[in-house]
Amino acid sequence: SQTIHQWPATLVQPVGSPLSLECTVEGTSNPNLYWYRQAAGRGLQLLFYSVGIGQISSEVPQNLSASRPQDRQFILSSKKLLLSDSGFYLCAWSAGGSSPLHFGNGTRLTVT
Amino acid sequence: AQKITQTQPGMFVQEKEAVTLDCTYDTSDQSYGLFWYKQPSSGEMIFLIYQGSYDEQNATEGRYSLNFQKARKSANLVISASQLGDSAMYFCAMREGSWLFGSGTKLNVKP
C-alpha cells in the first residue's frame, strides 16, 4: 500500500534562518506531488506541485522554493524565513485523474 | 472561473443525528471530480468520499454520502448518525486539472 512520510512534525525557527521540509512517498511511482500551506483556522493554499522529477510549478510567488530530486521525494526550502512563513505545511500525492489527494501528517512551522 | 464555496463556517449537531455540510462549485468543464476531506484537530487531512461528474449515483462510504446535484452545482456531504469523533473541519475540494479547496466547515458534535 502507498504511504506518505513528512517530517519534521513541528519546527521552530528564527527569522532569517533556512528551511528544509522533506516528504517521501512509498508504494507508488511517478506520483503528482504537492505542497500546501494552511494558516490557523483557514483553508489550504497550494504552494507548489510537481508532475515529475525536476518539474516544479509554483502557484504563489514567495521566498519558498521546492525541488524534486527523486521520483518520490519532494522538498520545500527557504533560504531566509519570514515571520509570515509560519503555518501548517502539508505534503500530498495523487496518482492523477480521479484519484484523491493523500496527505502527510503535516509540519507545524513557527517562525520567531 | 473555477470556484468552490462552503458557506457554513461552523455547524453544531447532536450526537446520533444526521448533518449536511454544504458545498457549491462553479466550473465550465464537463469532466471533474468532487472530494470531501476531514481534518481533525491533530491536523492530518483524511480523504472521505469522491464523486465524479459523470457518476449518476450519489457516492456513499459508510456513514458518509454525497448529495450530488449537478444542475445546481452542489455536492453536499451528509454524515449520518453523528459521533463525537466526527468533530473536525471538513473541506470540499474539486479536481478539474488542478485542485481547488473550499474554506471549510467546522463541525461540532454535541453529546
Give an overview in words.
The complex is a heterodimer of chains A (112) and B (111). With 112 residues, chain A is an all-beta fold. In chain A, 0% of the residues lie in helices and 58% in strands. Chain B is mainly beta and 111 residues long. Chain B has no helices and 12 strands. Chain B starts with a strand and ends with a strand. The chains are: A mainly beta (112), B mainly beta (111).
Strand content of chain A: over 45%
The multimeric state of the shown protein is: heterodimer
Total DSSP E strands of chain A: 11
Strand content of chain B: over 45%
Briefly say what this structure is.
Chain A has strands at 3-7, 10-13, 19-26, 32-38, 44-52, 55-58, 64-70, 73-78, 87-94, 102-103, 107-111. Chain A has 112 residues and is mainly beta. The chains are: A mainly beta (112), B mainly beta (111).
List the helices and strands and how they pair.
The complex is a heterodimer of chains A (112) and B (111).
Chain A: E1 3-7, E2 10-13, E3 19-26, E4 32-38, E5 44-52, E6 55-58, E7 64-70, E8 73-78, E9 87-94, E10 102-103, E11 107-111
Parallel strand pairs in A: 2-11
Antiparallel strand pairs in A: 1-3, 3-8, 4-5, 4-9, 5-6, 7-8, 9-10, 9-11
Chain B: E1 3-5, E2 10-14, E3 19-21, E4 24-26, E5 33-39, E6 46-52, E7 60-61, E8 64-69, E9 74-79, E10 88-96, E11 98-101, E12 105-110
Parallel strand pairs in B: 2-12
Antiparallel strand pairs in B: 1-4, 3-9, 5-6, 5-10, 7-8, 8-9, 10-11, 10-12
